[in-house]
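Bench log. Compound arrived from synthesis this morning; before running ITC I wanted a structural hypothesis for how pyridoxal-5'-phosphate sits in the protein. Inputs:
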Amino acid sequence: MERKSNIDWGSLPFGYSPTDYNIRATFKDGKWGKPEVSDSEYIQVHMAATGLHYGQEAFEGLKAYRGADGKVRLFRWQENAKRMRNSARGILMAEVPEGLFGEMIKEVVKRNAKYIPPYGTGATLYVRPLLFGSGPQVGVKPAEEYTFMVFVTPVGPYFKEGFHPVAVELVHDFDRAAPQGTGRFKVGGNYAAGMQASERAHQGGFASVLFLDAIEKKYIDEAGPANFFGVKNNTYITPKSNTILPSITNMSLIQIARDLGLTTERRRVPVEELETFEEAGACGTAAIISPIKKIVDHDTGRVYEYGEEAGPVSTKLYHQLRGIQEGTVEDVHGWTEVIEGV
Ligand SMILES: Cc1ncc(COP(=O)(O)O)c(C=O)c1O
């Protein structure tokens, strides 16, 4: 089935819209089968699948970018493949080898080439790989069968009005992850655990939450589905914690910050330090950087403010990374891969 593609790229939401194809592979009897392309948005799953009952599920998120030169690029997809293997190990699922992961994401992007938004619209093609226990178990133990699938969906720019700072709510009464739990893996359960806090924040007019460390509530952890960073004295500072998902965007911004002559620090960031930052932001694939204009702590009544406009360091980092992804800035680290034939 071919779907219509008279898409108004400029008004696409950051959400799901259908494309023509997705791709699936099954791990059975100790090995991965051949990937199969499907035109159905549905999957048939055993009702006792461990992915449904015991949270054996992990996912990834990356994008295909149409560059200024018309080429389509993937950004550091091998890092997503590695993180997914790490997530799989974390909750005892079958690991997807890098080769299979790469083959499947490229195939599904190529098959849906007409959904890759044109350069200059701010829209991109979001790529969502997911892995889950699809084999039945009733006792709590790992499945023997796993499904890995990849779908794509065109998404609009994260910020409709451009690169604008957002308000964030500091959360004391919810934890996204426990120190020896699954916070560093990209598993569905972490997102379920954070939903009450993030929905409350959205209803309160905040773009995101900022979680604190679960034990002492003294250190900054993560900003919802993004990593946190602060900037002061020409230094890019980002929290170190076992409950944070290692963001590929953050990893890249650290490198770019160094390339631009900034000092970088990954260390514990006490809440009090928030008042010393000149700039603050949340970073992730969706928006690259969401500059933060203020962080509100309802518990202490404190509000940390960073201004209505994005700061100079965040702005520079954002444009540099976006330029690499879109092929307008030289990719000196070899982070992008052009998908041939699209
Ligand atoms: C919890 C969490 N932290 C951070 C990130 C940002 O990671 P990345 O830069 O790899 O998109 C994401 C999004 O993937 C996330 O879900």
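What the model suggests: The CA atoms of residues 108 and 189 lie 26 Å apart. The mean pLDDT is 95.
ITC booked for Thursday regardless.
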